[in-house]
Predict the structure.
Amino acid sequence: MADIVVLLVGSRAVSLVGDLAFRIAFIAYVLKTSDGSAVVLGLATAALIVPSLVFYPLGGVVGDRARSPQLVMVASDCARAAAVALVALLAHLGVGALLIVAAASLVGVGEAFSRPASVRFVAQVVPRKSLVRVNSAMMLGQQAALIVGPALGALLIAASGQVAVFALDAGTFLASAAMVSLAHRRARPAPVTDAAPEPAGTLRTGATPALKYILRLGWLRSVLLIGGTAGAVFAGALNVTVPLLLGGADAGRELGFFYAMEGVGAVVGAILLARTEIVRAGIVLFCAMAGMAVALGLTGLFLDGPGTYAMGFAYGLGANVFGSVYLTVLQSNVTPELMSRVGSLGYLTYTGFVPVGVTVTGWLVSLGGPRAATLGTGVFACIICLIPLAMPSIRALTIGDSEDPARSGSRELHPGRK
């Protein structure tokens, strides 16, 4: 199993390095070609999210039903490499932001298929007792990428421009596809069960069981709804107000350092989680999100200074805690037969709120400036993240408080938890 884990960690990390470098270059390119317009930047960022919103439900169904989820992941990586290569070509030709955004939006289609398939693949090849350890290793790989990616993007922009960063991202997708292909060859066969195969049906009937499952569980509804709303605020700050606070179109170096500090905080969060036993997962989830809201809100006070980078560190720490605990709760408490679909609907919820968040943030900046928008949205996000702590289902939510999926079949886990 060790070689599979190394390949999975490497695949995710190298792909994320390219994604985060791309993020810096994309923001800089859009600001440069739109005369530093916050509204255009918000709309451009929102447009990147739309394809994944459309295709996440289909990606979840494919992830649960595909004979080989690894091949779905490889095909998705290759498609995204082609899309980013097109972005690099268009940027080299000096086209406007509209064509760049249109080409870059194709990356979201591949993501909508890759992420749900990866949830199922990990569940197939990793024993249940090792899931927490493997997830921790994958998170550490991601956090390392959070440090390397933005810093590499900032350096490449300074040395060679945005086109070089776009080309780098295309190459990282190809490297990720190669690693997943090797993991595919080494993957152990999926365990044989007595469960009858699920009828093919349609997209609607395929996604409906997962939607009903989510609606029956009060804690899961709350995590997705509140988390999605707060995530929209976070996306608006990270993609609109923070770049403007750090200098706008000329903020490549400062923005890269902010995101790098976010990665350092995430590594510290992963180390703390490895040394801490999480008992009340619901409380940890919402306290982590409230802390993230406070950190981003305070960037509106510090502006371009050491305090801003300290808030990037604090946000990264909270993001790691939330992401790790959320994933572990899903894997521990969600029935395996619906894991990809529940995961895809979770991705859809979190991603679906982002276009609204970045668009509204751009509008708020045009009304009151980036500083007021950052402070106001941070206060709002903090308040809504603290409200669920009064819910009994959130306070009682724990990690691993479920039956062994191998013995529970397709029956819902914790059907009485509301």
